[in-house]
Amino acid sequence: MKIAMIGTGYVGLVSGVCFSDFGHDVVCVDKDPAKIEKLERGEVPIYEPGLEALMAKNVEAGRLSFTMDLKAAVQGAQAVFIAVGTPTRRGDGHADLTYVMAAAKEIAEAANEYVVVVTKSTVPVGTNRQVKHVISKANPTLEFDVASNPEFLREGAAIEDFMKPDRVVVGVQNPRTEEIMNEIYRPLYLREFPVVTTDLESAEMIKYAANAFLATKITFINEIAALCERVGADVKQVSKGMGMDGRIGNKFLHAGPGYGGSCFPKDTQALARIGQDHSMPMQITETVIKVNEETKRRMIDKLLDLCDGSFNGKTIGILGVTFKPNTDDMRDAPALTLVPALIGGGAKVRVTDPQGHHEGEALLPGVHWVEDAYKAAQNADLLVILTEWNEFRALDLKRLARKMATPRLADLRNIYTVRDAKRAGFEAYDSIGRVAFPKN
Question: Model pTM?
Fold first, then answer.
């Protein structure tokens, strides 16, 4: 099938590349000439393991191309996917649908035969019906259908998630659309991966409900972790005991400095606004948002304790600033709360991150970037593990402690233990949801 993918951001590029690997003829469209030029050179503008090689393979096979010409891409396509950004709208928390509706209008003006317009962007309930209205108004004679096909890709594991999904969700209005969507995902049908076909509104809601629930699990265990610190329990043991219950499961029960990224912050905000607009407040989701922000701020107090009550004049090394490992994404990362607080308190901050430098330079002014953890630790008063990159899972703790002016470690991802830190020669160690030493 011929597919046009509107938008070459994270979702659009990964989806377009993977669809081409299914054997479809895919044209990815973007308005940014620099991005298109980069893609045509075989360079991937985002960091995602395996994506560059898969892209090169399908470009070479003639199944994947990139263009700024939306009209040419849309004409002759059986399906056009909208995969543009839906950032949180300033002031009210709603998802900003400006780019989605603009894309719908351009598709309507470009299409000249039957096409299925598929929304892959994360959008509020009712958006696909709005897309249908926009297209009908812009091109009353066009024969088309709309479908909702939300993505469930984890940054850092997106290709695996696309090729071996837990499920594919497709919202349609008639059998003809369902048949076309089934053909698009035929390779997954053949391997018996579940495809859930629903109405438009249910497909839209599934995405928000899923992300809000996962954000709730993260926030719940972070709140339990705070209590564990007060009562002397170990949140890692608590998480393990909880997660062995099949009704709960062990995923997303890892305590940390709060969630971030491209999905959970904006999707929880959007779901809360949808509830308010329909006089059905999402009270749990609203509390999750509040507690997550409090969790990030609580990390500042934790670091302040390790710095004897003041950041002023201290040198602090930060290991990892992306919101999670295996990505260069810093959207709503805990680092964007913690690092400015350190600098504002008078600290000199050194940062190392395997992929975060490019985005981090603009987002974290005033920090000094270094090559590795050992350079970050040089003469430092505190070292903070903020992102659980593999590079930080097997550090020589003794070497780090020897390099520091005052060997103190804040392990905000619970990679190490009190025993590890003591053996290495650290004079103070704190983590999430476990007793620190020396005890506060």
Answer: 0.92
